[in-house]
From TrEMBL:
Residue span(s) of domain TACO1/YebC-like second and third: 79-235
Stated family: Belongs to the TACO1 family. YeeN subfamily.
GO CC, any one term: cytosol
Keyword rRNA-binding attributed: no
Keywords annotated in UniProt: Cytoplasm, DNA-binding, Transcription, Transcription regulation
Main location: cytoplasm
SUPFAM superfamilies: YebC-like
Pfam families (alphabetical): TACO1_YebC_N, Transcrip_reg
Keyword RNA-binding: no
Any one GO molecular function term: DNA binding
Record-given protein name: Probable transcriptional regulatory protein J27TS8_37330
Subcellular localization, as worded in the UniProt entry: Cytoplasm
Length: 239
């Protein structure tokens, strides 16, 4: 099941560090979560989850505070949560999640990013049935046996526990995300290398070199869109 989470995350972080784009995306996501519920993460599980993710990307505190204060201030700015599904080169599959205040603009931009890079948008449900929503939580400084023992003591069943690079990665049901984190925190863990609710492909595919280059260009084009928050796919991009 492993997707080399640290490699993927490092690649994205290096790319995003040049533009601070990731901070803007998190700012929007934090604002929406805080506006839809209480601005207190202890009373708002959605906000708590977003803030946990933000920590793993080293989002500055002032970005977080500004987004929450904006929500507290009663801003009338509203966003729609949208999901697009499509296909890339050689039948590869892609899911795109967006937050937008202009649905027509976002749909047009996503469609163009697919179309200009050898892909095409599909209808709702054309791809997502081949993915499973999954909690992915990573820690350093522990062995797989350590993690298995502490989760068993907490009476938590998970899908898988794998060693990937220097981390132990736990794959669990989405509703177990906070329970797994609490088990780690109770065992003295305060930092997580990965803390995501993601869409994992049931089967990864490997593309020929030329198709992979085109696919990566398409993914970059989608991730570059201001309204796009997350892009999931079923292609093994290796290292």
């Amino acid at each position: 099941m492993g997707r080399k989470w640290n490699n993927i995350k490092d690649k994205k972080a290096a790319k995003d560090a040049n533009t601070s784009r990731i901070y803007a995306k998190f700012g929007r996501e934090i604002y929406v979560a805080a506006k839809q519920g209480e601005p207190d993460p202890e009373a708002n599980q959605t906000l708590k989850f977003v803030l946990e993710r933000a920590k793993t990307y080293n989002v500055p505190r002032h970005i977080i505070d500004r987004a929450i204060e904006k929500a507290k201030g009663g801003s009338e700015e509203n966003y729609d949560e949208l999901r697009y599904e499509g296909f890339g080169p050689n039948g590869s599959m892609v899911i795109v999640d967006a937050l937008t205040n202009n649905v027509n603009r976002t749909a047009s931009e996503v469609r163009a990013a697919f179309g200009k890079n050898g892909g095409n948008m599909g209808v709702s449900g054309s791809v997502s049935y081949m993915f499973d929503k999954t909690a992915v939580i990573g820690v350093e400084g522990k062995t797989a046996d350590d993690v298995l023992e502490l989760l068993m003591e907490a009476d938590i069943d998970v899908r898988d526990i794998l060693e990937e690079e220097d981390s132990i990665i736990v794959y669990a049901e989405p509703d177990q995300f906070h329970a797994v984190q609490e088990a780690f925190k109770n065992a003295g863990v305060s930092e997580f290398t990965v803390a995501e609710l993601t869409m994992l492909a049931q089967n990864d595919v490997t593309l020929p070199e030329d198709a992979q280059a085109q696919f990566e260009k398409m993914i970059d084009a989608l991730e570059d869109l201001e309204d796009v928050q997350q892009v999931y796919h079923n292609v093994d991009l290796g290292q």
